[in-house]
Automatic annotation (TrEMBL):
This is Cytochrome c oxidase subunit III. It comes from the Bacteria. Residues 43-166 form the Cytochrome P460 domain. CDD domains: cyt_P460_Mc-like. InterPro entries: Cytochrome_P460, Cytochrome_P460_sp. The keyword Flavoprotein does not apply.
Length: 170
């Protein structure tokens, strides 16, 4: 197995984003870029958020991933708060793995694959553990069938961690 080298640059502290920045009411007024079922959108400024943890997904996806969080998420991770408070927003970025052209043993990000968003709002999403989900390809939400799979995995595999897979990498 090749060693994995990841260089990540994450913003330091930033102004907390309100929950409204990542969610919209699932109604006729929901923007075109909102996820089906949950009405979640990609939050503005998320690329400046702090890194929670990197991840490597082996076959079949073969992806490099990075999960970032808003200030509410970062505070909860650092203080060990579970369940996560309402207002927590987690964003997972994913890229295909490719070999570095400069350094053969290194794996670097290739083409972007998805941006996935989890928003904690226990009043809005009581049936899914308080979480709303969004999955986006090229900035556009994927179809409803793919969103229906989010909750099933989170519920089955990480119920004891408030339905969140990612652990903080200090």
């Amino acid at each position: 197995m090749k060693p994995l080298y990841i260089l990540a640059c994450a913003g330091a502290l930033l102004t907390p984003l309100g929950l409204a920045a990542a969610t919209h009411a699932a109604s006729d007024t929901a923007p075109e870029n909102a996820s089906p079922i949950f009405g979640v959108t990609i939050p503005d400024g998320y690329r400046k958020w702090e890194l929670i943890a990197p991840a490597l997904e082996a076959d079949p996806l073969n992806e490099l991933r990075a999960v970032v969080g808003n200030q509410t998420a970062m505070d909860a991770y650092r203080q060990g708060i579970l369940p996560f408070p309402d207002g927590t927003i987690l964003v997972k970025l994913a890229w295909k793995q490719k070999q570095s052209p400069e350094f053969g043993p290194a794996t670097v990000p290739g083409a972007a694959t998805t941006v996935q968003v989890m928003v904690k709002d226990s009043k809005k999403y009581p049936e899914t553990g308080g979480w709303g989900f969004g999955r986006f390809v090229n900035g556009k939400p994927v179809d409803q069938a793919q969103h229906e799979t989010c909750w099933a995995c989170h519920q089955a595999l990480v119920k004891d961690h408030d339905y969140v897979f990612t652990r903080y990498a200090p």
